[in-house]
Recover the amino acids of this structure.
């Protein structure tokens, strides 16, 4: 898949955030983020998104650009919420509509663009037997990659995410050999 990613490590520590009076407490502070681009699920445009980790080690997906005219919502969407949805639909797979609750009353493109990002990150894959459905994949390696990024900043994965099961219940492969 043609995609690119860049990693931005900010020289910010938990202590500097807590002691810096210029940071408004209501504004989220992201210690690091990964920026990547990928084709939309329709392959009609290129989506750019960020994976962000805040000072509490919570992981977020944020849509930041689209090369076509489609509008989208650029709110940070917590991976904890995404992961719950993925786990709830691990047997039957997901579609972009499955992600609609993450973007209630927001642009209808956002859920499809987020699905493209999840596909690009290896968290879902196309189901060959069902049109417009995506198989939910195990996120252990992906979380380990995020943890590696966090380790360089001495940040641990959020306790709320760490408390969730490490492996998803995956449906049996539908591929014929």
């Amino acid at each position: 898949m043609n995609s690119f990613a860049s990693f931005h490590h900010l020289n910010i520590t938990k202590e500097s955030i807590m002691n810096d009076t210029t940071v408004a407490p209501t504004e989220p502070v992201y210690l690091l983020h990964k920026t990547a681009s990928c084709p939309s699920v329709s392959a009609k445009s290129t989506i750019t998104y960020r994976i962000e980790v805040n000072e509490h080690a919570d992981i977020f997906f944020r849509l930041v650009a689209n090369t076509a005219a489609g509008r989208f919502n650029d709110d940070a969407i917590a991976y904890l919420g995404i992961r719950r949805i993925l786990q709830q639909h691990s047997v039957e797979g997901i579609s972009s509509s499955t992600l609609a609750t993450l973007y209630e009353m927001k642009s209808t493109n956002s859920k499809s663009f987020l699905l493209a990002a999840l596909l690009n990150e290896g968290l879902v894959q196309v189901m060959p037997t069902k049109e417009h459905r995506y198989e939910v994949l195990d996120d252990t390696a992906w979380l380990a990659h995020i943890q590696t990024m966090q380790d360089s900043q001495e940040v641990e994965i959020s306790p709320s995410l760490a408390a969730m099961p490490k492996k998803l219940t995956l449906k049996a492969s539908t591929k014929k050999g």
